[in-house]
Amino acid sequence: MTPTVAVAVATGNEGKLSLFREVLGPLGIAVVGVDPKDAEERAAVGYDSAVLAKLRGASQLTDLPVLAHDSGFEFESLGWGPGPETKRWLAGGSWRKSAPTVGERVRVVHALACSAAGREKVIIDSDERTLSEWRAPGGALLPLGNLTDGPRRAFSDGVLALVQWVESGND
Q1: Which residue among 38, 48, 70, 157 is the active-site one?
Q2: Known catalytic membership, residue 70
Q3: pTM of the entire structure?
C-alpha cells in the first residue's frame, strides 16, 4: 500500500521508527523520524513529562502530526520500579545492586503522545510478562530484548488510538 498521509515520530532511533512503521504502514501512513535531541533529558521524571518533552521538541521541527513514545520497566522484585527512571537506573549502574531475575513478572509501560492541530493527547498503558532474559547494559540497554518481544497490545493499541484521535479531529 502506498502511504497517503505522513506522521512524524519523535525519535532518532531507527528501531523505534521501524516499530511505528510496522503498526502504521498497513494503514497507509508514512512515518518520518524527527529527532527531539535531548528534550527528554531536560524533563522532570515521569512517563507523562518524558513523552511530552519528546513530543513538544519534535513538534517545533515539523508541521506534521507528531507521535512520541517512552517506556519504562517495572520489575516485581524491585517493588515495581524503576518505572519512569529505567533509563537512569540502567545508565547509573544501579542494576548491579538490584538486578531483576529471570522468571519474575515485569510490566512494560508505554507512554504514547500525539500532537495535531495544536492539541495534545497522552495514553499510558502496559503489557505484563515474565522476564525471559536479562542482559546487563553493554550488550543491550533494554533488559527485555526489544519492545516487539511478547505481547504488544499496549503499544499498538495506543498508537492506533492516537491515529483515530487525529482522524476524528482531536475530540
Answers
A1: 70
A2: yes
A3: 0.83
**DSSP-based three-state secondary structure for 45:** coil
Is 171 strand, coil or helix?
Answer: coil
Task: Determine how β-strand 66-75 pairs with β-strand 5-10.
Answer: parallel
Cα–Cα distance for residue pair 110/92, rounded to 1 Å? 22
* Count of C-beta atoms within a 10 Å radius of residue 146: 12
DSSP 126-157: EEEEE------TTT-SSTTS-TTSS--HHHHH
* Grid cell for residue 123: 495514553
The H or E element that residue 82 is part of is: strand 81-83
pLDDT digits (tens, 9 = 90+) for 81-128: 888 888 787 777 776 677 777 788 888 898 999 998 889 999 998 888
Pairing mode, if any, of strands 105-116 and 119-130? antiparallel
Instruction: Name the pLDDT band for 46 (thresholds 50, 70, 90).
Output: confident
